[in-house]
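Hi! If you just cloned this repository, the fastest way to understand the data is to look at a raw example. We've pasted two of them here, unedited. The first protein comes first, obviously.
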Amino acid sequence: MRITDLLDIKSIVLGAVPKDKSEAIELLVGLLDAAGRLTDVAAYKADILKREEQAPTAIEEGIVIPHAKSEAVKTPGLAAITVPGGIDCNSLDGLPSNLFFMIAAPKGGNDFHLKALSSLSVLLMNEEFRNELLAAKSPEQFINVIQKAEDAKESEKKKETAPSSITSKILAVTACPTGIAHTFMAAEALEQKGKEMGVWLKAETNGSGGVENMLTKQEIAEADGIIIAADKNVEMARFDGKPVLRVKVADGIHKPGELIQKILDNKAPAYHHDGSVNDADEAGGSESIGRKLYKHMMNGVSHMLPFVIGGGICIALSFLLDDYAINPANFGSNTPVAAWFMNLGGYAFSFMLPILAGFIAQSIADRPGLIVGFVGGFIANLGMTFSQPGGDVSGGFLGALLAGFIAGYLMLLLRKICNNLPKALEGVKPVLIYPLGGLILIGVIMCAINPFMGIINNSLSNGLSAMGGGSKVILGLLLAGMMAVDMGGPVNKAAYVFGTASIASGNFDVMAAVMIGGMAPPIAIALATTFFKKKFTENERKSGPVNYIMGLCFITEGAIPFAASDPLRVIPACVIGSGVAGALSMAFGCTLRAPHGGIFVFPVVGNVFMYLIALVIGSIAGMFMLALLKKNK
């Protein structure tokens, strides 16, 4: 299907004068509706705006391409407007936008809208083509300009064959985070510049619809060099030993000649794959160390999230289905049904930290890092030491994070060392040397690290005991704040153990402050994802509401994925919210005789109404701190 088949004279307006981007989108949606493409205007507009929240569709050179797959689309279509005066649409080059195309695609269909985007992006790379569109005097002329360009493009493709005698052969891979316009624009720019310079150049695109124009083994073997113009990770192992130039995708669009010339001048360094999934080229410098670490961490967090949610909901159900009066100390496991849900959720939680560490290590070192990361995370959670092989003080999620990174980079080091082994041992490495050597090394390292967690815990417990007779409000603020520091780790556990020990001595107000401090972080995060949506990614917004349940059930671990993905902002915000809640709980004289249970033990809370007020105020304080500290996504 051609672009001109999707355009209707009714869906084109030339010389439009919208005041801003919002008004331009309103006009484009109306044009699609006028052309009979939509079944529900409001629903389609909502889908367009949702897509705009993910990433701007204003590209460069005055081009804007809003698009969406929607159930409100009856048939695929395009709408277009020209805005001679230009309006600010937050484009990548900071210039006003004057040429708009809106793409409507039915949901559940094929990847039509991606193909249309790629075709449009390629055509719009040509400045003369853009100028002709802006100069069109009627919708008919506007369509004729596109038809002429499409005909020329198709004719050009039919004639494209590799020259019989090739002096230089260059390959390219292009990719952007969304895998849409920039991906194809960079590929087009490189291929066109290659033709101008008399160089045979083939570009592979890593778009949202998958890899297209994939480079073959033979092409890679015969290539003089490879240009990687990408803002996300691409498969690099296949380029081992070849000259590789790695740059941002924008450089592929704006500096194609310069990049090609570097390959021709042999200025691209030889690439050597070290086994890392996210291996970066030495000369590229396209990603900071912090960004790489963030990607590794998010790989672990994304795999851990289902365990947190599934396990947390099961534990919540165990409290809902139990009878507190049977045995308050065993609340959550008194009845067979409650015990079943409690155990099921506990089993899921037991996998949570090994999964986190394992997939961080896998992101760094590929498959060899997976087993070492899993075991490292398990050892951290268990608290295994040389003197206590069966486990001592748990390292919590911070220990598992550390174990994942240690395991990943440890395996990269081990693989480099093994590169010097004889070729005959090549088959033994993945099945014996890597897993055995990695396990022994991670075991030694984590057993050496875990005792420090115990020292931290003991120091915190001793400090808390010393100040127990001091200000109750300060103690409540401190204990509750500690519950949010590492959410299940040594600091959290130190505060919790202190709270449970206080029950035995009759200090029920301490346990009340501890529990409310553990309830506030998930609720604050759930509130923030509800009322400050722009501060979170789409996946975070979807999983955020689950934290209402997690928080009310005193499952602080529900906040871990959010804390792990943005610790410098989320943890301080949660600590403040928990601290406020704990201080108010102490100030109101609230008490708690149960060591767990969340909202389900509120019937045994002393001064329960003010306890609820303290929880609400602390959670709202945490929400506003998150809104203040976090950047828009």
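Ok, and the second one:
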Amino acid sequence: MRRFIIPIFLFLLYHNAFTQESSKFYGQAIDAQNGLPLELVIVYVPETNVYFETKENGRFSLDISATKNLIIKCSRLGYQTQTITLGNWSGTKDQEFNISLIPITNQEIIIKENVNTNNSNIKENVKSFELIPTTTGNIESILPSIALGVRSSSGGELSSQYSVRGGSYDENLVIINDFEVFRPQLIRNGQQEGLTFPNADLIRELNFSSGGFESKYGDKSSSVLDIKYKVPDSLRFSIMGSLLGASGHLEGSKKYKKNSPSKINYLLGARYKTSKYLLSSQDLKGEYQPNFLDLQSYITVDLNAAFQLAFIGNINRSQFKLIPEESTQAKGSISFVLKLNAYYEGQELDYFNQSMGGISLTYLPKNKKHPHFLKYMSAVYTGIEAEQFDILGYYRLSEIETTNDENAGKEIKLWGTGTQHLYTRNYLESLIFHNEIRGGLELENKGMGGHFMQYGLSFRHEDLQDRINEWERIDSAGYSIPNSDTLVLLNSVLKTKNQFTNTKSAFWLQDEISLFEQSKIALKITPGVRLQYTELNQEMIFNPRCKFEWVPKNSTRNVRYWFSTGLYHQPPFYRELRTPSGSLNEDLKSQKSAHFVAGMVANLRLKKVGPTPFKWISEIYYKKLWDVVSYDLDNVRILYSGQNDAEAYAIGWDNRINGEFAPGAESWVNLSFLRTYEHLYEVQHKVRESGNPNGKEVNSVPRPTDQFFSISMFFQDYLPRNPNFKAHLQATVTSGLPYGFKGDNIIYRNEYRHKPYHRVDIGFSTLLWDSHKKSAKPYNPLRFCRQSWISLEVFNLLKVKNEASVRWIKSVYNYQFAIPNYLSSRRINLRLRFDF
């Protein structure tokens, strides 16, 4: 198949590459009433991929090819859409045109922050990522490139989980239209992961905070991903298909009463994913049958000018089946190489089914003097998960010849042989009810600034039932380990049943205080507090938080500074409560942390690099953590101790530069440095030292997420004078994650490291059809759609063997060897997308 894909794609490239010429249409968007620049204005050519979203200065620039009766539209929420007609656009001369948008009073009810708010959260329009080459199909895969301090999990490209500034994967809050969403609990490796809740086809924008976030966000201690879905204004739908799956979405808006502004807005999305093609490149050969399906909807109904009713629903079905056959793995240096051959019997069958339904009622009256809102939300989440595998593996560990003669690759010494029998029947059922009411009030103080006060009260009930039955038998050189003269003993056994119920209630209050808005330096202070009570351990949490922002008004580089601090205590969920023996520690307290974050943002004018200013965001941070629940990582599985047994810290420096190397094609580069260490209470940690058999005593050791260095990049470009052919490159290089001996990772804790992770994915996309060409090509076979794209993607371009975890093998000499489990190799993918 590869023999035909590349020639076809090169032919399409040749056909489209140099057929069009273009020039710039540029200017500034302003408010018609006060003359101030407007950000977030979409300037676009209807039914094409040509668009631009204005930044803080309101400037825009479009590259538009020659065409007849050129129509340009400008739209922004809360303003009347403006249409510009230029007649015959020659495409040979740049033209400037300034846009004045008129505010409107009747609009969809959208709760927004104070219009003067310009906080330090990363905010992006997801449309920029429609053609990104991704193996997971999930929006989280782009976070390491666009958000500060985000690192991919140890599951690498197979996983959508991520670590933020040294935190675990369970410390990240994900919110969709103010509803918190949950992940499956039993997943232990990236290949089992399916589709996450956020659907990129439905998203309007995403906000991401890497720490120091406001009190309105929940009780996670690392990050917040806040996603808003679209508010559609016309009928649109799309279809996408590739070797890794397919997706489709439908959106529209319809008035349900004549001569009334009230409307029904609907978003429907369906996604299917199968990673069989990708998994077949791993060292473990066998029959993979992964099937993942996600269906969701978001519907809003304007009851009248003040009330809006919304419904959100999701059905997520994930099934993973594997019949392993054999694997070959190697590890070593130039002079010493170990090779592990294994043959298997049995199979693995897992499923992770999640469902969610929620409704919200928003009240936003027309009150210009004191605008306020109220919003009530109610949601229910259900999950049924199962791990079922019974696999018997026969392994042979040997040393092989590394010389360049005819004996190269031959076995020269046998280090170990035996069997490993894994049996698991784990089942988890979860039911979560969540109710919340929140409100806000905006107060203006002429001449000084104003206040935007927000508050919320929530109640959550958690009910989980867990059945665990897993054991491991190891036989080495004909002896069962551990060895007995009379019994066959298992290496490990875990059997238990748990029924867990808990109730959490919370209240939060915050105020955005804007000061000196008319002076040379504007100041915004956001104090807040969050209270939470957990019934299980009868713990009351009090978390004060505050953020300061300074904005010099006359700065030519749009410089802004901020400092945030506060307490971020995370009440335990089910996984943290479960000890290694399977029992629940119901006295477990919240993990506690204090954040200190200082940052700045500034425009960099690099005229030789790009046509528009680049934005540089930089933050330094320090996090102090105590009452930490220590854990070990095995791929993406987190094995908690179930005790508040550690203290830790994280310190680092994050940087992001983003801008356009070519007009309309934004790129991002992230550079981060991190050190996160921990100390287990009542343990004297040590590190091994040459010549010292007792080891060297140290005060702290690396946490499982410690990675000193990380650089991620998402780059976009297109051919000169033809934006219809695009290239997308995503690259990541990070330090290796630490790990320790299985079952003995206390004193000499996390003393080894995986190899550095580095990966490059690249994609080439060409516009096959645009409805704008209909007059020139009325008989094109693709004229039935609005746009169509074809993409050729190369995953793991450099064919690097990255490590996901290790498998511990005991030799006949009672040594333990860590044999790496590798991630996927190079794969080529073909993707088609149709927009209607």
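That's it. A detail worth noticing about the second one: The chain is about 5% helix and 60% strand.
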